């Protein structure tokens, strides 16, 4: 493909300001500088958080906010701690960041003790501990690479994962050291010869598909831990090669593709001496360990899930024997939904879960719904003595924070249209808000229901404000955002139509927040009407809506077709239905390729980034949730595959794929390209050397967007 030539406004010397594509990449889509990852002290006096020093600096720092004085204090600066300025990331840490889609550097995670007086974090594969009272930061003895360090609730010990084992540091001086050095030792790890066993970290599908990135949990009194052990021996071994470096051997990875083996997961109670006892449940029937909760409100809680995800149990653990008892069972003919923050004990001993009732997902205490019909609960954010902090909404484009009291009283804490998140503890409530009315995030601190202060956001100000129109289209009221060039005069010209969706289950693109539409507005300004639409399967519209994609990913394309028809009807003098394209990444890439293959009568060009083309090559947990087991439903997989339909391609298609992608492996694009070639169908493939499922590299991300733009202009004329 021809390399794009610089546009006049983007030529060297034309302007000192970076182009939007470069600025978008440099700021990680304008997220750098936003406060994030908050912890609140039990008495509400202190808030700990992460923040980059500016909107263009990827080196995340650890900060503390004093609620009474309203002042901020930087606790740990990576540039100061690493005297050589270089950060060394282990393969384990790189994989962990890939699972969490983390593109920043520095201190990207931390954990606190119960009173939020100490914070442990990993930096450059080393272990660090911050005293939040004195501000002192010291490096603790450790064995690299350090992954996911967590202090015990009392603050004396710090556990961390390293080299397939879980290790422990006693932060008090070792009696025999003589020099005040803390004691460091292995707590539990693989036995000799167990080359496929790991302790203390989450297995691939838990981190990628269940939103569980941790693999151990401290007891409330700090005397023991629950530790995950997994064995990847049943998981097929794949290899990811770097064709640009033929002298390097391929990297072996264990990938649980649909229909193949998962890791064998178990849970163990481990004391500080390393003595361990297995926690037993029917793991043959319920192999997925979805989450673990261990608080002072009750015994440990586990949520386990069947392989087909149609049955789930909540279990309690008897610490003396390791036996478990089921206290709740859920089943669904499609799948049982995983809701972040559940299950949990309430302070009064009742069980906190969600229940799906008709068209609504409701919060429940001991199985009884306590939130109203029509209010879709998305996640539990916090539980304390004042009740439950919940993320919920009645409008899919918005997300609100509500307090649900132990008596069932529901109190909205946010009302302004937007996307809001929160934390709460000790009478302090923290609210993080985005909206269409302001740039970036606004972080407010509330005491007694009134604003007591704000935490500064240092995000870069975008060079323009998106001009977004939110619509409900068609009889299904598809939530849709429409963006024209900011200088467009209605009726002056008919523009090509560019759809820019994700379009798949469990993800939203149409949000009441400016940041959601910056890239879409830039594309619109290049001469397109850009449309973003959320169809069936997306969150916030209830269980029945989510389950409409069961066995049928192709139905998500039907929604995009309906959007094209509705936009053409509403804007007959402003859009040209004879020039329609779609671009997308991951599931959006699948949808874009499907659009030009299955509906060339509607879509005239497609850009498919990291597309899933054969669902047999994607992971067990995600794929089998929606399409079942491939051996039991081969026709469903064939119907949803792009490979068998490749001969239908009649329109220009650009396939983009990172060759180092270990989530949607490059074989997806290569197999589709092979099928297209066998059918004699012209297409373009852009391989990205050394790039994973993310594209955080500044130059790559910038030029990739420009290449997409050139392709679309050429394809649509």
Give the topology, please.
Layout: H1 20-26, E1 36-40, E2 46-51, E3 59-66, E4 71-76, H2 78-81, H3 91-99, E5 105-106, E6 111-112, E7 118-123, E8 126-131, E9 137-140, E10 147-151, E11 157-162, E12 165-173, E13 182-188, E14 197-199, H4 204-209, E15 216-218, E16 224-231, E17 237-240, E18 251-254, E19 264-271, E20 276-279, E21 288-293, E22 301-305, E23 311-317, E24 324-331, E25 344-345, E26 351-357, E27 360-365, E28 368-369, E29 376-384, E30 387-393, E31 400-404, E32 410-412, E33 419-425, E34 428-435, E35 438-447, E36 450-455, E37 469-473, E38 478-483, E39 495-499, H5 518-525, E40 529-534, H6 543-546, H7 555-570, E41 575-585, H8 587-598, E42 605-609, H9 620-627, H10 634-640, E43 653-658, H11 667-678, E44 684-688, H12 698-716
Helix pairs in contact: 1-12
Q: What does this protein look like?
A:
InterPro entries: AB_hydrolase_fold, Peptidase_S9_cat, Peptidase_S9B_N, Serine_Prot_S9B/DPPIV. Residues 110-422 form the Dipeptidylpeptidase IV N-terminal domain. 16% of the residues lie in helices and 35% in strands. The protein contains twelve helices and 44 strands. Strand 27 (360-365) and strand 28 (368-369) form a beta hairpin. The two termini are 17 Å apart.
């Amino acid at each position: 493909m021809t390399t794009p030539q610089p546009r006049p406004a983007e030529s060297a010397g034309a302007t000192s300001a970076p182009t939007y594509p470069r600025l978008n990449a440099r700021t990680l889509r304008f997220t750098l500088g936003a406060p994030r990852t908050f912890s609140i002290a039990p008495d509400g006096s202190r808030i700990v958080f992460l923040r980059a020093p500016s909107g263009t600096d990827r080196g995340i720092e650890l900060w503390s906010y004093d609620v009474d004085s309203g002042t901020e204090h930087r606790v740990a600066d990576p540039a100061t701690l690493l005297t050589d300025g270089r950060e060394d990331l282990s393969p384990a840490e790189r994989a962990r960041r890939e699972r969490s889609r983390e593109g920043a550097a520095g201190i990207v995670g931390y954990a606190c003790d119960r009173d939020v007086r100490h914070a442990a974090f990993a930096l450059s594969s080393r272990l660090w501990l911050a005293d939040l009272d004195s501000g002192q930061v010291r490096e603790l003895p450790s064995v690299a690479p350090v992954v996911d360090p967590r202090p015990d609730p009392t603050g004396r010990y710090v556990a961390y994962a390293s080299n397939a084992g879980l290790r422990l540091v006693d932060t008090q001086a070792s009696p025999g050291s003589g020099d005040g050095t803390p004691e460091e030792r292995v707590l539990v790890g693989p036995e000799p010869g167990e080359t496929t066993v790991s302790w203390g970290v989450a297995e691939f599908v838990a981190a990628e598909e269940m939103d569980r990135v941790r693999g151990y949990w401290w007891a409330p009194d700090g005397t023991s831990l629950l530790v995950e052990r997994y064995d990847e021996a049943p998981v097929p071994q794949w290899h990811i090669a770097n064709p640009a470096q033929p002298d390097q051997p391929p990297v072996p990875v264990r990938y649980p593709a649909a229909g193949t083996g998962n890791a064998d997961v178990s849970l163990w109670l481990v004391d500080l001496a390393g003595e361990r006892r297995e926690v037993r449940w029917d793991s043959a029937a319920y192999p997925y360990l979805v989450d673990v909760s261990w608080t002072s409100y009750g015994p440990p809680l586990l949520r386990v899930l069947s392989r087909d995800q149609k049955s789930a149990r909540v279990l309690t653990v008897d610490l003396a024997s390791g036996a478990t008892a089921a206290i709740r069972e859920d089943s669904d003919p499609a799948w049982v939904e995983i809701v972040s923050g559940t299950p949990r004990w309430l302070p009064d001993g009742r069980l906190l879960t969600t229940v799906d009732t008709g068209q609504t997902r409701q919060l429940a205490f001991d199985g009884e719904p306590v939130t109203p019909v029509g209010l879709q609960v998305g996640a539990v954010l916090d539980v304390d003595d004042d009740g439950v902090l919940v993320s919920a909404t009645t409008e899919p484009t918005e997300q609100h924070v509500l307090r649900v009291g132990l008596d069932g009283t529901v109190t909205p804490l946010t009302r302004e249209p937007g996307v809001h998140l929160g934390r709460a503890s000790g009478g302090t409530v923290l609210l993080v808000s985005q909206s269409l009315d302001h740039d970036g995030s606004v972080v407010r601190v509330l005491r007694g229901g009134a604003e007591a202060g704000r935490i500064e956001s240092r995000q870069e100000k975008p060079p323009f404000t998106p001009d977004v129109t939110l619509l409900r289209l068609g009889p299904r009221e598809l939530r849709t955002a429409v963006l024209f060039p900011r200088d467009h005069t209605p009726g002056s010209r008919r523009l090509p139509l560019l759809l820019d969706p994700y379009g798949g289950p469990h993800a939203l693109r149409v949000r009441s927040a400016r940041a959601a539409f910056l890239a879409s507005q830039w594309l619109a300004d290049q001469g397109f009407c850009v449309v973003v639409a959320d169809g069936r399967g997306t969150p916030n519209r209830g269980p029945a809506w989510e389950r409409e994609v069961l066995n049928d990913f192709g139905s998500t394309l039907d929604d995009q077709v309906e959007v094209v028809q509705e936009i053409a009807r509403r804007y007959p003098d402003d859009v040209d239905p004879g020039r329609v394209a779609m671009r997308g990444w991951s599931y959006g890439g699948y949808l874009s390729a499907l659009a030009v293959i299955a509906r060339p009568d509607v879509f005239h060009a497609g850009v498919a980034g990291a597309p899933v083309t054969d669902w047999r090559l994607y992971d067990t947990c995600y794929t089998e949730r929606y399409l079942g087991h491939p051996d039991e439903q081969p026709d469903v997989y064939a119907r949803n595959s792009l490979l068998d339909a490749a001969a239908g391609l009649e329109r220009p298609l650009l396939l983009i794929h990172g060759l180092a992608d270990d989530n949607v492996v490059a074989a997806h694009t290569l197999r589709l390209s092979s099928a297209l070639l066998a059918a004699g169908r012209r297409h373009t493939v852009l391989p990205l050397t050394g790039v994973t499922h993310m594209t955080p590299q500044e130059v790559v991300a910038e030029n990739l967007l420009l290449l997409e733009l050139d392709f679309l202009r050429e394809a649509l004329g």
